[in-house]
Design brief:
Elements: E1 2-6, H1 11-22, E2 26-31, H2 34-41, H3 53-64, E3 68-72, H4 78-88, E4 92-95, H5 102-105, H6 109-132, E5 138-144, E6 159-164, E7 167-172, H7 180-199, E8 202-208, E9 211-212, H8 238-248, E10 252-255, E11 261-266, H9 267-279, E12 287-292, E13 295-298, H10 299-312, E14 319-322, H11 340-344, H12 353-365
Parallel strand pairs: 1-2, 1-4, 2-3, 4-5, 5-8, 8-12, 9-11, 10-14
Antiparallel strand pairs: 6-7, 11-13
Length: 382
């Protein structure tokens, strides 16, 4: 298939581009460099600087023989995006082209506005480009488990059937996002659900939990192909951050009580999930929702796993509870469903000691680049 990846320079976007091109798809990766610019703006360099997107594509082709076409441009510019659609004629697209950080979105009015403008306009443009230029193109949108919040009932997969005064109706599951970023993902979902009902587009919404790791089979081709590996409080996901803190000899920073529970998955499982959605697409007029995670952990569970894995490699790892900078429930019920992708064929990779040892080893090889100024939270919700 011809697959368009929007946000193709990001942590997941680049790994997806390589993964799909290695499986014979014709892949185009589009990015405007926003994630790189914002990381520089807040002083949050990744653990290892990675080449620019065009250079990464050249390295990938030389190392693997597979091609990824790259194009620099802004998905929020409809003239640009519509030109991409007319030229490339995608059969499917994977939409990663959003500001991906909850803390960034809560760091003042201007950054909240950037998040709203970027995330909602990019999704609106995708919907219209598909409707008007490639109406058979399957949209795969990366949502987030954070759309749901932490309700006191089970989280079903996308929908909830409600009985009320003797009648029943199936609704999108009620959403209670905890940040401006998560709010934009809810609004994305509502917008695209609208597009399936009114324009009969085919859309899969992947509500993904936090992703950890960086080793996919494609990365073995050349070390320079590694994705952005952030470990700061703004762009770094919690497990990646804990591993870097452990190597740096910095106490693992658990926010508050540490009982905040979420669904997590390895980056290799993200690749599986996207490919399964791509090769078994939604039908026209279908808004298909999958909860994309493989295991649930409380933050303290993750910290203890990293501490134990670190001690196995000779590290003296401490855990420290700090004041929670976020507004969130720290003790809550959490039982989300995740059967859809399993039924499509997902084979989960659990978080094992070996997985953590591999992550620790990678970080140790680059320990000289760790910036301890990135270890503590800088953004507060209030």
């Amino acid at each position: 298939m011809r697959v368009l990846i929007l946000g193709g320079d990001g942590y997941l976007g680049w790994a997806t581009a390589m993964h799909l091109s290695a499986r014979g798809h014709s892949v185009m990766a589009v990015d405007n460099g926003l994630r790189r610019r914002l990381s520089r703006e807040i002083g949050a360099a990744p653990l290892v600087e990675v080449p620019e997107l065009a250079e990464r594509a050249n390295i990938w082709r030389a190392a693997s023989g597979h091609a990824v076409k790259v194009l620099q441009g802004d998905v929020c510019d409809y003239a640009f995006l519509s030109g991409v659609f007319r030229d490339f004629q995608p059969d499917a697209l994977v939409h990663y082209a959003e500001q991906p950080s909850a803390p960034f979105s809560m760091d003042g009015r201007d950054r909240a506005a950037l998040t709203l403008q970027n995330n909602l306009m990019s999704t609106l443009n995708v919907a219209f480009a598909v409707r008007d230029i490639c109406p058979k193109c399957h949209i795969i949108k990366l949502g987030t488990m954070g759309e749901y919040g932490t309700p006191n009932i089970d989280i079903e997969e996308g929908y909830l059937e409600v009985a009320h005064k003797g009648r029943t109706h199936k609704f999108l599951y009620p959403k209670t996002p905890g940040s401006i970023y998560h709010l934009t993902k809810v609004q994305d979902s509502d917008l695209l659900y609208f597009a399936t009902r009114i324009w009969k587009l085919a859309i899969t919404d992947l509500n993904q939990g936090p992703v950890y790791g960086l080793e996919t089979p494609e990365l073995a081709a050349d070390v320079r192909l590694a994705p952005h590996f952030n470990y700061d409080d703004v762009f770094g996901t919690v497990l990646n951050r804990f591993v870097v803190q452990a190597v740096a000899g910095f106490p693992l920073t658990v926010y508050g009580a540490g009982r905040q529970t979420r669904g997590y998955l390895n980056i290799v499982d993200t690749m599986q999930c996207v490919e399964l959605a791509l090769t078994q697409p939604a039908k026209p007029g279908e808004f298909r929702v999958f909860n994309q995670f493989t295991e649930t952990f409380a933050v303290t569970d993750l910290a203890e796993k990293v501490r134990d894995a670190g001690r196995q490699t000779g590290l003296d790892v401490a855990i420290k509870s700090i004041e929670n900078p976020r507004v969130e429930a720290e003790e809550h019920y959490y039982n989300p469903a995740n059967t859809g992708l399993i039924e499509l064929g997902l084979q989960p990779h659990p978080l094992t000691g070996d997985v953590l040892a591999g992550m620790i080893g990678y970080v140790q090889r680059h320990a000289n680049t760790i910036d301890q100024a990135q270890m503590l939270p800088r953004v507060r919700w209030r």
